[in-house]
From TrEMBL:
This is ANTAR domain-containing protein. Residues 6-120 form the Response regulatory domain. SMART domains: ANTAR. Residues 126-187 form the ANTAR domain. It holds the Pfam family ANTAR. The modification 4-aspartylphosphate is found at D56. Keywords: Phosphoprotein.
Amino acid sequence: MPDALSIVVVETDRERAFMIVDGLRDAGEFDIQVISEPSGLARQIQMRDPDVVLIDIANPSRDVLEELTLASGPKDRPVAIFADRSEDGLSAAAVEAGVSAYVVDGLQPARLKPVLDAAIARFRLFQRMRTELAEAKRALEERKVIDRAKGMVMKARGIGEDEAYALLRKAAMDQNKRVAEVAQALVTAAGLLA
């Protein structure tokens, strides 16, 4: 993220919005924009494309929370929600929805920067975890395809597993491709011929 973070503050109360903006300005160098009308929130946030979204809401319900989190794009950027009150289970629901920080009865100007720092750190952690999970799933799928292709080569040539893999690897090197790509081509071709 750039040095001067762009922050969108979603706050319908003008006085609270001024308090938040002043608190953020005291805490550092930020590009701050305020959204005072939450209708069309997703479009408004998308147009501004901020680094962080900070939402202040008096008493969120599950529906409002879900709408706000979907609109603010918690998978695209850190989202911090400050709520005056909260029903049982809403903080867990917020975290499951991807909110990086959910603070109840805690909108105090001096706490804004530490909460935003924690939200950004948590967002980055989850972003890394999502990337690692996607890579692990991709590797597992590739492994399945390679094993299937090895089985086909073993059966067709009457050879062992190591020899079949060596053939796939050689074909991949000869074609300047990955073993998984050659294996997928073999599996696809066999499916067409069956």
